[in-house]
Design a protein that fits this description.
By secondary structure, the protein is of the alpha+beta class. The chain has helices at residues 13-21, 59-65, 76-90, 113-116, 119-134, 146-156, 169-173, 186-194, 200-204, 208-215, 218-226, 256-277, 309-320, 353-371; strands spanning 5-10, 30-33, 41-44, 70-72, 97-101, 104-108, 138-143, 161-163, 242-253, 279-290, 295-306, 330-342. It has 14 helices and twelve strands. The protein has a five-stranded mixed sheet with strand order 5-6-1-7-8. It is globular and about 65 Å long. The structure holds magnesium ion. The site of magnesium ion has 8 residues, from strand 1. Pfam families: IMS (PF00817), IMS_C (PF11799), IMS_HHH_1 (PF21999). Its EC number is 2.7.7.7.
Amino acid sequence: MGRAIIHLDMDAFFAAVEQRDFPELRGKPVIVGGSPERGVVCACSYEARPFGVRSAMGMSRALRLCPQALVRPVRMGRYREISLAVFAIFRRYTDRVEPLSIDEAFLDVTGCERLFGTPVEIAARIRREVREQLGLVVSAGIAPNKLLAKLASEQGKPDGLYAIREEEVESFLHPLPVGRLWGVGPVASRRLENGGIKTVGDLQSLSREYLERHFGSFGPTLFEMARGHDDREVVSGGTAQSLGHEETFDCDLWQPEDMERELLGIAERVARRLRRLGFSGRCITLRVKYSDHISVTRSHTLARGEESSGEIHRIAVELLQRTEAGSRAVRLLGITLSQLGQRGSGQESLFDEDDRRRRETLNRTLDGLQERFGEWGICRGSLLAPPGRREGGDGDQGS
Ligand SMILES: [Mg+2]
């Protein structure tokens, strides 16, 4: 018995939320992003795409291509709130939900037929619920594994539902450009195309040994992907949900006192939003962007969820001391809480005080390890991928 995997990906997520919240933006080219002088496009509505506007493009270039575009600032906190509601709908059908980003997930619905219908019916129901309850569009791909499900949802976009049955895998993959496969970036694509390999069908003609010789350890993966093989499980449990707030300053900050004062305001905003949603968060991440646009993050994971602004601020200030803020000028500060849970769910009572302290020490060690993975690897879902660092698909750039 094969598996049934659904890949769900919100269409133009950030831009769609703006159009949802502000009706005057509907049907118009909308760009979500930074300032026209130095920002980048984080997302754009489908109305902006015929002009050539794409996410990760410089704002000034995007506005030259589409001068009539309506530009909206990034409201990450709002997108995270909506994302929580989207994932709550996903979880009505299965607890096997693997978040890939703020607006994208894999669901394993193997064996859910008796309760909810066929995988295609489940995907259609989820799409309907997201549309009716949230006023947003989610595209779905249904296939026997993650690789194919993700390719299927891309195929269906926008506003699509696309299923690949076991017996259709071959004919689906054959005409696909090699660049559509995971991990095949522009460099690998060019190398393959120079060798006359343009489609996945062409790729199938190459032996495992040949691919290993030319692509090293990636070779065998290419060989398997060309045949639509992918055994990876849907890994649930983790949550990509996070809530946060960032402030960019008109003038760079030099004084630690000024930064601490700004952090208090940010902590209060985050805490307010957490309380409104009835959540607390265990992982507190501070983001610091220096005046040269280099940014770093520092995180701390607590044994139990926190939602008070005082405590969030205290930890953020501690984290600030582990950055170069003060000896370098700072242009942006942000605080994100992740590993969210329902507030007061009673989990903390399972641990006595000693236990709690031991876990905190362990968490600190883990945090130290996590930091080595750099800014974008720390807390899944606190992502707003910088340009040029996107991996496969459209991530949370809201396509
Ligand atoms: Mg998307």
